[in-house]
Design a protein that fits this description.
- The complex is a heterotrimer of chains A (about 300), B (about 230) and C (about 260).
- Chain A has 10 helices and 12 strands.
- The longest helix of chain A has 18 residues, at about 1-20.
- In chain A, a hairpin with a 3-residue loop joins strand 2 and strand 3 (about 75).
- In chain A, helix 1 (about 1-20) crosses helix 8 (about 220-230) and helix 3 (about 85-95) runs antiparallel to helix 10.
- Chain A is an alpha/beta fold and about 300 residues long.
- Chain B has about 230 residues and is mainly alpha-helical.
- Chain B has helices spanning about 1-5, 10-40, 45-60, 65-75, 95-120, 125-135, 140-170, 180-190, 195-225; strands at about 85-90, 90-95.
- With about 260 residues, chain C is of the alpha/beta class.
- The chains are: A alpha/beta (about 300), B mainly alpha (about 230), C alpha/beta (about 260).
- Chains A and B meet through helix 4, helix 6, strand 9 and helix 7 of A and helix 4, helix 5 and helix 8 of B.
């Protein structure tokens, strides 16, 4: 229940943020537990003999790396069987395309990956895919395969409700919290603020609340969730000052997965299931659903 | 190794934070720990008891919890260290730094106290008696005769405590200080292709720092050893 | 210069210096000092002997309050022993003490052992304290080893340094608590020689010892203690040739057979 309420609240704040008025908060619409995605029939010859997709479809089981601690993208509360969020919804579409039931927890394992272990997990084959607010970067592409993006987000700032701060430029010399090891932390340092590393986003939010730090920063979608949890005490401000291209990670051992992932994403863009996934998670009844981002070309095999 | 060299400036800055935490917490924990030890062996019963309770409480509490207390429980009761804001070139010693440093001092002091107490206990009683017999008052007995010898006995455990402190500073990397550990996580996240090198480089720097510490301790031990 | 103590300390010879009146002490149920009444006069050498556990060491240590007493009074030069604190420290500076186990400060050189008291307690300048230490160390035959540490010296040498350390404070009285008991036999003489010298120069001395030879040659008086009480008090000549008590006869019988 908590997740639903939170998501609804997040949607509300997102709306107000988009329309530029931060003061008012509308009523939140209610939603279901994500989209019910059905497994597709896999016909013979759909996947090329010997491809990784064929192996997975044959085995009927898959492991996906997702985040457990980012409301809206990948979040799992103690009572959930399956994590929720936009990342998870996209994962479901990929799983279903292999003919596996995404809601069957005996066939699909949603393994928690944190920022540090996404590449090692892919390299070691511990997870087959990573959909964990996984920014596409050139450096990461040296060790793992990444394709997409299926979502574009940017870094924003979360401050106390009574703060005068309007953008990162107002925070030069001030202390700004973000999760230890994140690119966000590096970005605020580059902008002239003092980075304060923390273990979790909620820890940062706590520090903003009690005034220990001036602000916190990370992807806007996460900040909206936190602001919704502390309505009236925290607010998201400023333009996005970085662009994060969220994509799907796969192992470089199976380059054939890239075209398949792009295919599934393209199909989802066209048949409306991408928009449906967005509306069920980051979006909502009142939120305008953005255009799906253009996909990168797969590297030549 | 390119990633490490390209980011040498950031890494150096991170280790300056690490070392400054170590020096600040190291020096102050030695002073506070010595006071605690004096209280523990001193003639005032209330102080003896208070120091014993302090050591029992703090030494049995994980470091992370001690620091989290100052980082998160502290602000709730108005203890924010907001008055701390020291800027030296690129180094910023702010309220978070202060909270972490205080946590390290509080924690490490209890170990310093016990190391010194074991050192004091290792000084034969006759030394104190002889010092009293030539007319030295309590303070003189402690400072001229007991403490110098206790330090000698306590040096190996004190060195261990300080080495542990150097490594314990990494806890601050998740609690608001952009020291070596936080920097390492930033680099491993940004440069997934060079993780092994980054890990090795940071581990190597720590090994070198601890080796330097061990060497200093060893030299002191040699110098203070008598015949 | 004050480094000629033989003249100072013989002044007023024969007047009471250390007086114990009705001194009692218990360790739990054990009555270790029983109604001790002893007067030691200035310039006198008093040797305390007795079987082990007779309380003679406790008596010696009580005189500079390394042991407290439960009843009675001890006065030094007419003044009662103060309680803990600065005054007690001042009193102890007046009473030299030599321990069975030497107790030289292990982390200080021989010279520093001797100068610590004069510099820190008597506030003497370092140069003056060094000069005095050199003279005292020469006197006890350790002058050429001043820069060594205690552990580099033999037991006999260490004990002679301990005597020099006590003398550096120019004490009114010297207490010796079994000064030769921890020494190898060949080193006993070198320490006793120093003590005999000191006695001849007129130093007031209270010596707890098993060295009967020293008692015979140097003592003015012998106190024989047993079970916490002073059983017999006499000149050495009388005590050794004609002990009065059964306890003393028994004790002398045992030790003189060796």
């Amino acid at each position: 229940m908590r997740t639903m309420k939170l998501r609804a609240a997040a949607a509300t704040v997102l709306l107000t943020a988009l329309s530029g008025t931060l003061a008012a908060c509308g009523d939140a619409g209610s939603e279901g537990e994500g989209v019910d995605v059905q497994a597709e029939e896999v016909e013979d010859g759909k996947f090329e003999e010997g491809s990784r997709m064929a192996e997975l479809a044959e085995a009927g089981s898959i492991t996906i790396g997702v985040k457990y601690d980012q409301p809206g993208l990948g979040f799992k509360s103690a009572t959930d069987d399956i994590p929720t969020g936009f990342d998870v919804e996209i994962a479901k579409l990929l799983v279903a395309d292999l003919g596996i039931d995404p809601s069957d927890t005996s066939a699909v394992t949603y393994e928690e990956t944190i920022s540090d272990n996404r590449e090692p997990y892919l390299e070691a084959g511990r997870v087959d895919l990573v959909l964990a607010s996984y920014s596409i970067t050139d450096d990461r592409r040296q060790v793992v395969g990444q394709t997409g993006p299926y979502f574009i987000t940017g870094q924003q700032i979360l401050v106390g409700a009574d703060s005068d701060v309007e953008s990162i430029d107002d925070l030069v010399g001030e202390t700004v919290c973000s999760v230890s090891g994140s690119t966000s932390l590096q970005n605020v340092e580059d902008a002239g603020a003092v980075g304060a590393p923390a273990d979790t986003y909620s820890q940062c939010a706590e520090d903003v609340l009690n005034g220990t730090v001036e602000a916190m920063t990370t992807d806007g979608s996460i900040l909206l969730g936190l602001a919704a949890q502390n309505e009236g005490e925290l607010k998201v401000v400023g333009p996005e000052f970085s662009e994060e291209r969220i994509g799907v990670g796969y192992s470089q051992d199976y380059p054939e997965m890239c075209e398949w992932i792009n295919g599934v994403l393209t199909e989802a863009y066209e048949d409306g299931s991408w928009a449906e996934a967005f509306e069920a998670t980051l979006g909502g009844d009142d939120v305008e659903t953005p255009e799906p981002p253009a996909l990168d070309e797969c590297p030549a095999a | 190794m390119n990633v490490v060299l390209d980011n040498a400036g950031d890494i150096a800055l991170a280790f300056i934070y690490t070392l400054s935490l170590f020096v600040v917490a190291g020096v102050l924990s030695l002073i506070f720990g010595a006071l605690l030890a004096a209280a523990r062996v001193g003639p005032v019963a209330v102080l003896r008891k208070a120091a014993a309770v302090y050591v029992m409480l703090i030494r049995n509490t994980p470091l992370l919890i001690v620091i989290i207390f100052f980082r998160f429980a502290g602000p709730k009761i108005g203890l924010t260290f907001g008055f701390v804001d020291i800027r030296v070139a690129d180094i910023r010693l702010n309220n978070l730094y202060a909270a972490c440093a205080v946590g390290l001092i509080v924690y490490t002091s209890s170990f310093v106290c016990e190391a010194l107490r074991s050192g004091i206990n290792a000084v034969p009683l006759g030394q104190a008696e002889a010092a009293r017999a030539i007319g030295l008052p309590f303070g003189g007995v402690m400072s001229q005769v007991i403490m110098p010898q206790a330090m000698r006995h306590a040096l190996p455990p004190l060195a261990s405590v300080q080495i542990a402190l150097l490594k314990n500073t990494t806890v601050c990397g998740a609690l608001g200080v952009f020291e070596a550990f936080a920097r390492m996580r930033g680099l491993t996240n940004d440069f997934a292709s060079a993780r092994t090198e980054i890990f090795l480089a940071f581990a190597l720097i720590f090994v070198v720092l601890v080796e330097v510490l061990s060497f200093v301790a060893y030299r002191l031990e040699r110098r203070w050893r008598i015949a | 210069m004050s480094a000629a103590p033989e003249e100072d300390i013989s002044a007023g010879r024969g007047e009471p210096l250390v007086v114990l009146e009705g001194v009692n002490k218990w360790f739990g149920d054990l009555h270790v000092l029983q109604d001790i009444n002893v007067t030691v006069n200035r310039g006198e050498v008093v040797v305390v002997i007795g079987p082990s556990g007779s309380g003679k060491s406790t008596l010696c240590r009580a005189i500079n309050r390394l042991e407290t007493i439960d009843r009675g009074a001890i006065t030094l030069d007419g003044k009662p022993l103060p309680q803990e604190g600065k005054e007690l420290a001042n009193l102890r500076a007046e009473v030299g003490m030599v321990f069975q186990s030497f107790n030289l400060f292990a982390h200080k050189t021989i010279r520093e052992n001797v100068t610590l008291g004069p510099i820190k307690v008597r506030k003497m300048s370092k140069a003056k304290a060094d000069a005095k230490a050199a003279e005292l160390l020469d006197r006890v035959g350790i002058g050429h080893q001043a820069d060594k540490y205690p552990a580099q010296l033999s037991g006999g040498q260490q004990q002679r340094v301990a005597i020099a350390r006590a003398l550096a404070m120019e004490p009114k009285v010297m207490l010796f608590d079994e000064p030769t008991s921890a020494l190898d036999p060949e080193m006993i003489k070198e320490v006793l020689d120093v003590m005999v010298d000191l006695a001849e120069q007129g130093m007031t001395m209270i010596v707890v010892t098993h060295e009967m030879g020293f008692a015979r040659t140097a003592a003015d008086r012998v106190l024989f203690m047993a079970d916490g009480a002073v059983v017999e008090e006499n000149t050495p000549e009388e005590f050794f040739t004609n002990p009065q008590s059964e306890r003393a006869k028994d004790f002398l019988g045992k030790i003189l057979k060796h």
